[in-house]
Amino acid sequence: MPARLLSQPNPRLIRLTNLNVGEWPSVPALDGTAPRSYASSSAMAKTHYPVDADKAMRELCRADRHLARVIRKVGSFPTKKQKPQPPFESLLRAIVYQQLAGAAAATIFGRVKALGSDGKCPTPEEILRYTKAKLRRAGLSRQKIEAVKDLARKTIDGTVPPLATIRRMSEEEILERLTQVRGIGVWSVQMFLMFQLGRPDVLPVHDYGIRKGFQHVYGLEDEPKPQAVLEHGERWRPYRSIASWYLWRAVEQRNAQRSEAKKKK
């Protein structure tokens, strides 16, 4: 199996979880199927996008009347700036969280972090020094051990650039670099771009929540193909990350409405 498919989940095994700041949706990553989990509002609410919020909302409303209804209902998207994590720590977390529900993933990631000096996240050098048995005791599977050690090696050799460098790189350059790491696929890099770097024009069309949100907002009978979302999303440029945020929120609102309706029965 190609290494980069490790970050692609099985839709049948996902359930949505609330995320803490800097956390990504927990997703299975073994069979190459499209990501089903999507970013929850608790995580996205702490993600910033360096754009004029009023201008972005006006332009999205003008470009897409269907999305405009969601924007008017939800209101402004998050603009509060957060401090991004170093790429190594962010990607280490992404690998640990694959295939796991939020609580279990947080427990294991806490154990991995506790292996570092002074309770801090282990450095790449420390990860390489740890034996496989030590990482297994922390809760990592064989595949994840191989992935985190590959991440450490590629951080040390410069394939994964430091934060100061990666901030100046284009999305295409970042994608090309980071997907060289075992266990990091396109979807994981897109989440890094959106959650950690605050890039405003990313559209993760293989994300299940994006496609379900699109289906709901546009009243489609069937879930749209990624290519259809990508083509339609051209009208959202240069604010596709923000449009994505509204699609995620549309799904959350729909789910909340269904939950309330069930309670009333």
Describe the structure.
- The protein has two domains: 3-10 and 22-35 and 83-195, Hypothetical protein, domain 2 (Endonuclease III, domain 1, Orthogonal Bundle), CATH 1.10.340.30; 48-81 and 202-264, Endonuclease Iii, domain 2 (Orthogonal Bundle), CATH 1.10.1670.
- Helix content is 53%, strand content 0%.
- The chain is built from 14 helices and no strands.
- The protein has helices at 41-44, 53-63, 65-74, 87-97, 102-114, 124-129, 132-138, 142-156, 163-166, 171-178, 186-195, 208-217, 226-232, 240-264.
- The chain is globular and about 55 Å long.
- The N and C termini lie far apart (47 Å).
Describe what is shown at a glance.
Helix content is 53%, strand content 0%. It is an all-alpha fold and 265 residues long.
Question: Which short descriptors sum up this protein?
Answer:
single chain; 265 residues; mainly alpha; Endonuclease III, domain 1; Endonuclease Iii, domain 2; 2 domains; disordered N terminus
Low-confidence regions: 1-34, 40-46
**Mind telling me the CATH superfamily name of the largest domain?**
Hypothetical protein, domain 2
- What CATH first level of the largest domain would be assigned? Mainly Alpha
Structure class:
mainly alpha
- Assembly level: single chain
The arrangement of helices and strands along the chain is HHHHHHHHHHHHHH
* Helical proportion, percent range: 40-55%
| Major beta sheet summary | none
If you compute it from the alpha carbons, what radius of gyration comes out, rounded to the nearest whole angstrom?
Answer: 19 Å
